[in-house]
Design a protein that fits this description.
Layout (H helix, E strand, L loop, with lengths): L1 H38 L3 E7 L2 E6 L6 E3 L11 H6 L4 E2 L4 E2 L8 E5 L5 E5 L2 E2 L21 E3 L13
Length: about 160
């Protein structure tokens, strides 16, 4: 009986280890895919929303700023980035329709990737936005806001 229990425990631990290693591999692949996508041409443009004219990426996904970020420095840590992924790039971001090139910049994060900034606000996505045009992150925790074309945080409610 004890031998069966030990064998079962060994099998369970082995299975768990294989599952975790497979998950880690997939996460790395997804991360690498994400980094490859960010290496492609990134542009920031302006689009109409229920909050007025706001910043979106080249695919129309809403971009947000974190009210705790100061002077271009991101205060969004690892657990924060899980919900608010940074808009990253490996080259200079381009100003799309309505965006001002002089307000665009990049700053290297502690992880070594370059995050796109607009008017010194590091830009993020919200994991709760499912499709282009969603603005579900607006006002979350009273600190996350869509960004207007002039680089200001829109802290108001939808009209």
């Amino acid at each position: 009986m004890r031998t069966q229990f030990v064998m079962f425990a060994i099998a369970a631990v082995s299975s768990a280890a294989l599952t975790l290693s497979a998950c880690d591999g997939n996460s790395s692949e997804k991360k690498n895919d994400s980094e490859r996508k960010s290496a492609a041409s990134i542009s920031v443009r302006v689009a109409d929303s229920e909050y007025g004219r706001i910043l979106v990426d080249q695919s129309g996904r809403t971009l947000y700023a974190f009210g705790k970020d100061k002077a271009g420095a991101s205060e969004c840590d690892v657990s924060c980035i899980a919900v608010w992924p940074a808009l990253t790039t490996s080259s200079a971001a381009k100003a799309g329709v309505g965006a001002q090139k002089v307000l665009l910049a990049e700053r290297q994060r502690a992880t070594g990737v370059s995050q796109v900034m607009y008017n010194e606000w590091p830009l993020y996505y919200y994991a709760g936005d499912a499709v282009a045009g969603d603005t579900n992150g607006q006002g979350v925790d009273g600190e996350w806001f869509v960004v207007s074309a002039d680089g200001k945080l829109l802290e108001m409610q939808a009209s």
